[in-house]
Amino acid sequence: MELKSKIAEAAEIVIRTHGLAKATTKEIARTAGCSEGSLYNHFKSKDDLYLHILRGQLKNFMQTLMSLKDLIGKDTVRSNLEKVARAGLADYYQSMPLISSIFSEPGLLAQHREGFTARNEGPHRANEAVESYLLEEQRIGRVSEFVKPRSAADMLLGSCYQYAFQLNFLGRPLSDEEQDEYVHRVLDTLFAGIGND
């Protein structure tokens, strides 16, 4: 494993164990098995390191969202949204402690916002991707014309995010069984009004 990845992995462990405010570069370097100076060969600051970790937290979810455009008209709308819900719930659950810690650091949050703006990214892009997918499925008649695609996207992703928050808060693991049950329950409710397939 290259040193940059090793440092990022160590930083994630330290942040999860001690929290962002108490995660020192000295402790990160010790956990990574390198010198403190080595951190600065790969990252400008502890904040830069944190943002690097945070950007990598939702990779599976982002890949699933990017694949939606290739699923238009294929399989069922429900099975396609099930993939989104599973990936979203899993990545939200895993990343929740890191995502939440950014709100305790106003400067870091501002830096993160600036980076998102510069890259034309942000949490709202996930909802827009699901909305765009549903609009296309609606256009070809696989989603009811009465459905508001953005509201359906907000309900699906918002419920996954909120459930991930609850599980983290309560200290409960996200088991495969729990994930299956939750995703099916949400989609049963959503599809009571969403669609034609």
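(ticket continues) Second input and output from the same batch:
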Amino acid sequence: MTDSQPCIRLADERFDDYVLGADFSAQVCGYVSPVFNQPVAQWPLRTVRVYRKDYGIDPAEFARYRQPEAGGAIFVAWLGEQAVGHVVVSRHWNNLAYVDELAVDALARGQGVAKALLDVVRFWAVKQGLPGIMLETQNNNLPACRLYERCGFRLGGIDYLRYQAIDAASHETALFWYTLFADG
């Protein structure tokens, strides 16, 4: 990719093509056992044979958020002329901004794209008068857990059963992260 700073824009008519052409898969090497009020680096890790997880992102799933009256927004990160990541945000029932989806193309990871997208979510939430942000990831997405911790999010909830209906043998646990603006 490039060493430039990401530029963030609202999704436009090129969003579907970008999503369908990107690689949002991730390498999984294990499952962490989350512990409240403990740094992610200290969470126990059960390693597994490395595999790739494909998140199967569908650009139509959040298409309604491209309309101003939808109560949400889709922001796309660009490095130069290349779309490299996106975030979908909406107002959740609990009056927090909810990150419905955050994804960065595999070739653009480690270049500040996800942090830039989270910064835009924070700006959006403040402009909406919301008191904070919440999002969810899984215990096999250790890079995401580390990112959220670095960005000031705190682990606020653990759901061991969320993914059991999809795959009864799944070891995935849903981790809910929060940042409340009054926290600083």
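Agent notes: The longest strand covers residues 82-91. The helical segments are 15-21, 113-127, 142-150. Closing as not reproducible unless the customer responds.
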